[in-house]
Write a structure and sequence with these properties.
Blueprint (H helix, E strand, L loop, with lengths): L5 H16 L16 E9 L16 H17 L3 E6 L8 H4 L4 H10 L3 E3 L9 H11 L3 E2 L3 E3 L10 E6 L2 E9 L3 H4 L8 E3 L2 H13 L4 E7 L15 H7 L5 E3 L11 E3 L2 E4 L7 E10 L2 E11 L4 H8 L15 H18 L2 E5 L7 H4 L5 H14 L3 E5 L10 E4 H7 L5 E8 H12 L9 E4 L1 E6 L2 E7 L2 E2 L5 E7 H4 L15 E6 H12 L13 E3 L1
Parallel strand pairs: 1-2, 2-3, 3-4, 7-9, 9-10, 10-12, 16-23, 20-25
Antiparallel strand pairs: 1-13, 5-8, 6-7, 11-12, 13-14, 15-17, 16-19, 18-23, 18-24, 20-21, 21-22
Length: 537
């Protein structure tokens, strides 16, 4: 259905060219598959796990239920004399405090028990240092793949580019690609000496080489799925990759955290993505004949999702398949329980109270001023005695709930462990910096939540600047508080960590917020309400 047997097609073309040139025909790699025989391959996949090794308070998802589901499918596939691969689109790290405090050890060891075959390196894998990432590889025991991440000093790959799996008579190449937005989204301190090349340019050279070695090519990517390739200010994603690089059979994606309830077919490539957090297990069943895909069937299988969650994720698609309750696997529960209990004990300490909700949802905080963005900026200002506080919205990962606030609540809001820093700017330096930061567009992690200053952005320049209600004084300096991630150039901010007045306070962002909440409890949301002080024209 997909195309003429690749082997026969290539052989005919090669033979004609060789005959015209008067050359001896060199036979390409002889495939192992039998002509006319149908082969069955099942691909299971998840992406953007973000520390969700344990089920939530409603009993949804979690690795224990996922293992039961995967084991059942694995048994079914084996009974049908078929083959299976279990893959991840990356971003295992960052998002749940119980996981973050333990460097995602339960998550990677859980993936090992689940039997994952390979994963893409996501941008959040660089939230930790490279030694921690290498330790995570040891815990996982399967390949971390990325063909476009290199050691800047040597030019050598930092990770394995691909792995070829022998699935019965079929050779299946699984190749990894990481978004080139990692350089601006990852922690700059952890990316020193790391080069992220364009995945599309790397793929243009690599995929033709893999076509000579394998019958099927699967790309595990952490690049994002953007409808019709319209990626906006993001780096090009899976659609752009498929359109630019022929020869990829399947893309198992991640990064944009989309639930694709049917494959997006681009240039003959099936693009998949399974939302986030292990809410769904993606399943693609392929029939392969004469080296080509002749039919496919795909679905996202919800893992103990309640109707409300499934409906929210599915948006305008056809109704989600809500399955019966999936039991939790005892061996996975035994592995993960000590990590969950240790994390719960450390995180249950109360730090304060709030009289209402503080908004940190990414669909709000990355587009507009919110009370939580203002709260965090003020906390940094108070800790460093700064005039202005600036918080990149990509560093805000959750709401702060009404009522009792625990240390866990704080770490869910700020899970990255960034250091709070500050810098003393002249009036002209401040004008230039505010012009650059306020120009970062909505919808990105760089969108700035700003306190202590009002301004109007006109044609990319900050005008009518007032600091704490007073016009800029050209003879004085102004202190700006921000996290070290932004100061080092993360999320597209100007790099200012080399400035002579730059200071790392030594305090982590979550601890600064925790101390502020404790000192100012109970928090009143109206005290931090948006004022519209930053006008973008």
């Amino acid at each position: 259905m997909k195309r003429l047997s690749r082997f026969m097609h290539h052989l005919i073309i090669f033979s004609v060219i060789a005959l015209i040139a008067g050359c001896t025909v060199m036979t390409p790699r002889q495939p192992d598959w039998q002509p006319g025989k149908e082969y069955h391959l099942t691909i299971l996949h998840t992406n953007d796990h973000h520390g969700h090794f344990w089920k939530n308070s409603q009993g949804e998802y979690g690795m224990a239920a996922r293992k039961t589901l995967v084991d059942n499918i694995r048994e079914e596939v084996a009974l049908d004399d078929a083959h299976m691969l279990l893959l991840s689109g990356g971003d295992i790290n960052t998002g749940v405090p119980e996981s973050d405090l333990q460097n995602a050890e339960p998550d990677f060891k859980g993936m090992r028990l689940l039997g994952y075959d390979a994963m893409a390196i996501g941008n959040h894998e660089f939230d930790n240092t490279l030694p921690v990432l290498r330790k995570q590889q040891e815990w996982a025991g399967f390949p971390f793949l990325s063909a476009n991440v290199f050691d800047k000093s040597t030019g050598d790959p930092l990770f394995q580019a691909y792995k070829i799996f022998q699935e019965g008579d079929l050779k299946v190449a699984v190749v990894g690609f990481t978004t080139d937005d990692t350089i601006k989204q990852g922690n700059p301190e952890n990316l020193k000496g790391v080069e992220i090349r364009s995945p599309i340019e790397v793929a243009k050279k690599l995929i033709p080489e893999l076509r000579k070695q394998a019958d099927l090519i699967i790309a595990v990517t952490h690049m994002g799925h953007y409808d019709n390739g319209q990626h906006g200010s993001n780096a090009p994603g899976d659609v752009a990759l498929a359109r630019a690089v022929p020869g990829i059979d399947v893309i198992v994606g991640g990064h944009s955290q989309d639930p694709l309830f049917k494959p997006d077919v681009q240039n003959g490539t099936l693009i998949l993505q399974a939302h986030e957090w292990g809410k769904y297990l993606g399943r693609l069943d392929l029939v392969i004949k004469n080296g080509a895909i002749v039919s496919s069937h795909y679905k996202l299988i919800p893992i103990n999702l309640q109707k409300k969650t499934a409906a929210s994720a599915e948006a305008n698609n056809t109704r989600a398949l809500l399955n019966d309750k999936i039991a939790e696997d005892p061996s996975m529960i035994a592995l993960l329980t000590p990590y969950q209990e240790k994390g719960q004990k450390e995180l249950s300490v109360k730090v304060g109270d709030a009289n209402g909700r503080f908004i940190g949802d990414r669909h709000s905080v990355r587009y507009r001023e919110t009370n939580l963005g203002n709260l965090i900026a003020r906390a940094m200002m108070e800790k460093t005695k700064a005039d202005i506080g600036i918080m990149n919205s990509g560093g805000i990962r959750d709401d702060l709930p009404k009522g009792r606030i625990t240390y866990k609540s704080v770490l869910q809001v700020q899970p990255f462990g960034n250091m709070v820093s500050y810098i003393d700017f002249s009036a002209q330096e401040l004008t230039d910096y505010l012009s650059a930061v306020a120009s970062i567009p909505p919808g990105t992690g760089g969108f700035a939540q700003i306190q202590g200053v009002s301004l109007t952005l006109q044609n990319g320049k900050a005008t009518h600047i007032k600091v704490n209600g007073q016009p800029l004084n050209p003879t004085r300096h102004y202190r700006v508080a921000l996290n070290e991630f932004s100061a080092s150039g993360g999320d597209g901010y100007p790099k200012i960590s080399q400035h002579p007045s730059f200071v790392n306070s030594g305090y982590t962002d979550a601890d600064v917020l925790k101390d502020y909440i404790h000192a100012h409890s109970p928090l009143a949301p109206q005290d931090y309400a948006p004022t519209g002080a930053i006008k973008r024209e």
